[in-house]
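ok so i was messing around last nite and threw this chain in just to see what happens. nothing serious, just curious
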Amino acid sequence: METKNIMIVGVGGQGSLLASKLLGRLLMEQGYDVKVSEVHGMSQRGGSVVTYVRYGDRVASPVIDRGEADFIVSFEVLEAARWLSFLKPGGQIVTSTQQIDPMPVVTGKAEYPENLVEKMRAAGAKVDALDCLALAREAGSSKAVNIVLMGRLSHYFDLPQEAWMQALEAVVPPKFLELNKKAFALGKEA
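result:
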């Protein structure tokens, strides 16, 4: 199998590292060689955070270059647009429609761009956008956006539901497991 590439992008503190851990565990359990690389920006100050997950028969490097991502999973719509050049032709974006103002917007030096989903589609990207924050709140916690996104991403993988649940059980603390299972289901069924 050729190597597949997933970029998880967001803003610090949104749970992208747990999402990459879940994906890495899931794919390893399916017998793939998996490489996960975490790239922290100014994560503690609301800056960009990027995680690469690469899997296949043999994966040499954990890094994804421009035009190589099969999937971009984004916690925030501007982050999806920011990393669009990394999506390969025919690749898929799965994004939350949540908008988090970057520092230039907060300080009044810039305005948050409008119609980003439409602009990405106009640029030729396949975009699956949903209000993951509302679904996470419905599950019981606004912090479950990451697991809602993983539920949505599961649509694009031919892997059994049980495999996703086993990976979830392995990486989520027991006291948060039911909430996260609900978040996953809401994302999958949205």
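not much to say yet. The chain has a mean pLDDT of 93.
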